[in-house]
Amino acid sequence: VVTEERVRSALCNVIDPELGINVVDLGLVYDVDVRDGHVHVAMTMTSPACPLGESLTAEAEVAIRKNVPEVTSVDVELTWEPRWNPSMMSEAVKTQLGWG
Asked: pLDDT (tens digit, 9 = 90+) per residue, 33-80?
């Protein structure tokens, strides 16, 4: 069964190469919507100037298809609203980066 939890877990395999931290814990994944095997993910980057947007969204799709093979379709949308800020990171990452 395709669930939001399984999709988020799959997305933990997508690592921001600059920080070495997964996109979920960085707070880059804004929304995961699962309906009848169709997955829509809304995610962002730390900055609109980040050159990794297309690369990380493609990696996200691959991670979902690999780790949740029952999905029938995957759509990863890159959005800039709301703008990402460090408060969106998990508490563990804030501590790791010295923000907490």
From this structure: 999 999 999 999 999 998 989 999 999 999 999 999 999 999 999 999
Helices 53-67 and 4-11 pack at an angle, to 10 degrees, of: 130
45 with 52: CB under 8 angstroms? yes
Q: Residue 84 to residues 44, 64, 67: CA-CA distances in angstroms?
A: 7, 22, 26
Asked if residues 26 and 93 have their Cβ atoms less than 8 Å apart, the reply is yes
Measured in whole angstroms, how far is the alpha carbon of residue 99 from the centre of its chain?
Answer: 21
List the beta bridge partners of residue 10: none
User: What is residue 78's predicted lDDT score, i.e. its pLDDT?
Assistant: 96
The reported pLDDT for the residue numbered 26 is 96
